[in-house]
Amino acid sequence: MINSNEVMPLVTYKGSVPSEWLDYNGHMNVAYYMHVFCDATDAFLEFFGVTESYRQEKSCSTFVVENHVNYIKELHHGSKMKVETRLLGYDRKKMSYHHSLYNVDAGYLAATSEWISLHVDLEKRASCEMPDTLVGNLKEIYEAQQSMPLPVNIGRSIMSWDIKS
């Protein structure tokens, strides 16, 4: 049973920017934004039941098939961060979710990332249906989060530019 107080908002990452994550521009390197979002994804999976023991017992896991990152405002050395995760939709084989990365001390949204993941049979290396327990957990999370406002940057695609030489 999912506690609705835990999912409004569902905080899936907390940390601060170490100096080794900085790039030559003096802010957090793009690779580490993805690192943070991957850690948040792992925490989200754990939260609704895709744990290490689940993967071993069922020989199933999830594979990311698409994600988009939007960089909004810089993070610098020592910035305290948190990620809030919102389940956008799901069915028996896939889920869509969104991460919002915040600078906790300064109180601003630094980046967002939208993801689509498939539930996968690790032996067949093909998508498969999730068991009722996982679907039920996703249903509870989804329903508990419905009263929250939708996060920014949902459904965005990369912009194409008309570049002329």
List keywords for this structure.
globular, 6 strands, single chain, 6-stranded antiparallel β-sheet, about 160 residues, alpha+beta
Describe this protein's structure.
Strands 1, 2, 3, 4, 5 and 6 form a six-stranded antiparallel beta sheet that branches. The longest helix has 19 residues. The protein has a single domain, classed as Hotdog Thioesterase (Thiol Ester Dehydrase, Chain A, Roll). The mean pLDDT is 94. It starts with 9 loop residues before the first strand and ends in a 20-residue tail after the last helix. The chain is globular, with a radius of gyration of 17 Å. The chain has three helices and six strands; from the N terminus they run βααβββββα. β5 and β6 form a beta hairpin. With 165 residues, it is α+β, with helices and mostly antiparallel strands.
Strand percent estimate:
25-35%
Number of domains: 1
Structural class: alpha+beta
Q: Write down the oligomeric state.
A: single chain
Describe the global form: globular
**Looking at CATH, which topology would you report?**
Thiol Ester Dehydrase, Chain A
Number of helices: 3
Helix content: 10-25%
CATH homologous superfamily name? Hotdog Thioesterase
Report the span from N to C terminus.
Answer: 58 Å
Q: How does the major sheet shape up? A: 6 strands, antiparallel
Radius of gyration: 17 Å
Task: Using the 3D structure, state the CATH architecture.
Answer: Roll
What's the number of extended β-strand segments?
6
Quickly name the level 1 CATH class: Alpha Beta
**Nearest-integer average pLDDT:** 94
> Order of SSEs, N→C?
EHHEEEEEH
Low-confidence spans: none
